[in-house]
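Lab meeting minutes (informal)
Scribe: AK
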Amino acid sequence: MRAYAAVTAAYWAFMLSDGALRMLVLLHFNGLGFSALQLAWLFLLYELAGIVTNLAAGWIAARFGLASTLYAGLILQIAALSALALLDPGWSVAASVAFVMAVQGLSGIAKDLAKMSSKSAVKLLAPAGDGLFRWGAALTGSKNAVKG
């Protein structure tokens, strides 16, 4: 139960920081006058990096372990949040967009490493039998409850 609680806490921490990162980016560039379509483009690398990470995540976890991929996801997210703090208001719009897209790409990698690790860990930690569905639903449900 302790291991499940630790995985859930890590997943929650990641999910909250990821939501905050995306909200800050949206608010900043909306304040600069970006349209909804332009704002959506900022997240293109986030989604593409997530897709590529999903393709490789199983192999990475099999080679290095779920704990390693979970920690890597959390560390990459911390790096992305720290990098975003370096955004200089004096930069040109093009430089700001390129920088934010790169940071979002890093966050996309982090998201899928953390998500894959958390959900796979639940499968390993759940009791045999019908417990897997309940434990998986509890992880996903708790995430949805926290996000609102």
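Next up, CB showed the second protein from the same session:
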Amino acid sequence: MITGRKETFEMDSTLAVGFFGALFAIMNPITNLPVFLSVTDGLAPAEQRKVATKTALYCLILGASFAAVGSQTLSLFGISVDDLRVAGGLVVLMIGLNMLNGKPSTSHHGTEGERQSYPEPDTVAFYPLAFPILVGPGTITTLILYASHIHKPVDAIVYAGVFLAVLLLLFVTFWNAAAIAKRLSDNARVIMSRFMGMILSAIAISMIAAGLKVLLPGLA
């Protein structure tokens, strides 16, 4: 009985660490802080906090929706979770490599033309902040893939807890955006971005490898 509980705990903790690492790396509040400040430029601190609150709520709604119906949507198109592991892993890998090279990911941050046509500061909470910058292809892939690991109630609790923890960190960072920006050096942001890029690339490789083992068992 004790051994069984220990194995369950290890599985739950492994799920939590992997999910948190992937989700935090993609939605990273610190590396997305300059984007938040840019699209809310000109707003008073109180208005910035309203945008931060709306952004966190939109991320919660979008993320919960993709987690709840993502697998069913894939089934409608005849796409398996392992297909998504490979394709989504490639998307996440490109995001990670862009972070390592100091380049914004066009799949999350948009092209140069799209960035220039972003809406007015008071309407940016949903587009582009919540979607596609924070809840973009990489985030959606991560949410759906880790949702497929939910087999019992405790898994669902761990999953929800990790997702809410990342959103809380995001909310607190954006809520205090002006104060944090004054104290956080450019070098610190660059170092964190590079480190998260490396972590994200490693997670992406594991996603791709796990998918290929099932799709192409001869490679295992």
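CB comment: The chain is about 80% helix and 0% strand.
No objections, moving on.
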